[in-house]
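---------- Forwarded message ----------

FYI, see the AAA family ATPase record below. Original note from H. follows.
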Amino acid sequence: MTPFDIARIAFTPTAVATWAGKDHRNTNWPVVYVLDDAQDGRKVVRGEHVDDVYVGESRNAAARMRQHFGSVEKRHLSTIRVIVDETFNKSVCLDLESYLIRMLAGDGSYRVLNRNDGITEADYYDRDRYRETFREVFDELARDGVFTRSIPEIENSDLFKLSPFKALTQDQAVAVEGILEGLFEDLAADTDSTIVVQGDPGTGKTVIAIYLIKLLVDIANTAPAEDRDSDTMFSDFFAEGFRELLTGIRVGLVVPQQSLRESIKKVFRKTPGLHPEMVMTAFDVGMADEHFDLLVVDESHRLNQRANQPSGVQNKKFRDITEKIFGWDDTTKTQLDWIRAKSKHQIFLLDAAQSVRPADVPPELLRELVLGARSTERHYPLVSQMRVQAGADYVGYVRGMLGGQPVTPQDFEGYDFRLFDSLAEMREEIRRKDAGSGLSRLLAGFAWPWKTKTDKSAYDIEVDGCQLRWNSTQRDWIASAKSLDEVGSIHTVQGYDLNYAGVVIGPDLRYDAVAGKLFVDRGSYFDAKGKENNRVSGKVYSDDDLLRFITNIYAVLLTRGIRGTYVYVCDPGLRAHLKKFIPVDK
């Protein structure tokens, strides 16, 4: 028998007063409640905002409701669902509140009104058992129309993965707290500042970028008299003095990759206080007439230096922006320079080992950026692995394996890491995993020409009788209708999570068994911008330079899978070499 009860009452003073007198737990017991403005069940088109929702917890639910009656932003809400369980304590309620906020944000049919003041991943007695109860609570609320999607559907969605309502890891929380303290110190002193957050794939750099912007917006917009919860992680920043420092602040989030940028814009459309116009390219920043108080730059290693852009229009824009900002066309200036010139404060999130094209900002400039942040104590490293369940060692293992560094073969227990001798079999395994877990996709290096750009009936990748096509869209490809039947390139998956990734290492990367080293086959690498020399700076990219970009690409692809990574290798020499490090599928 389910121990919890969910009371559904009208959000009116009379109804709350009547309900309060029915049970002592309504005025003296830790509970979680959901407030929304859905009157008669949910009749919505998925993806469109229709209703608002607020989730809270309290030891005195009736008194808390009376406080909400005085809130302008909650006055229009109509229905309360109070979750009461005789076994709940404060820790359980905080955890359930956090869980429901995250799931509602990921479901996407409500606009979550909660502010972001620090959802925690605190441990407590018997947490695993309570987490089972949470799923039962979810199911009950879903039957009452609160949720429109299943738990797996929500957890696989971009709205969930990129939501600002995330439970931070310990080192993420330390980084966010340090960033806030440093930023407010610099705002108070009216001094410029540069902050760097550095981390490997899967450490949650994008999560921190989105989380920070929502947190700053909430601090800026919280009324001085508004009740604040002292139990939350960043509640101290909602105190007097901090809000004033953010008055009128102009904030932007710069995201170089088109696909990731579009996904984040979807999240911003659903989040109060955030707007899709806040998510920009470096070109948007450069062309803007206004100056920014703060720019947060995700995937900063993908900012561009002066090089031949994908179009003549962008080449002209690069020149025009440089002239506009610096007074003349200084070809040594990069988009990194634009960001610093157009803002008083910057937060750069980066991983230099994820630079994948010659036009990306050179690694030496990223090193200078990191050293500068360290010298001013504005550098925050991330080490906890959030994506790959194999742990942080897996990322180092993959990079060592592809970087020619000595690595000892390892068995990553609980992580499905396999080398396939048949691409067709790997494709079928990805299909099986997608049917069972969802979010499983094929990925590949750019080792085949993109025939389907001009001939939709053609196939791009043909290996051992297996015919495949490249991604048919650059925007939000992973969630697109055809993605399971296609192969994603680096430009569609960098910054994203998958449950299972099937990675095709093409003939662009090979292994010389005699010399004992990896090498590139230029003729089998078809990303024109990925091997183009820089005529502006006179830079000619050697095979060693190209090897760095290509191995970086494959390292990114091999670190997308949360639960598992499958590998097919085209070059026989490289396949034989990698069999020493990757368990062979049987």
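H. also flagged this: The CA atoms of residues 37 and 489 lie 42 Å apart.
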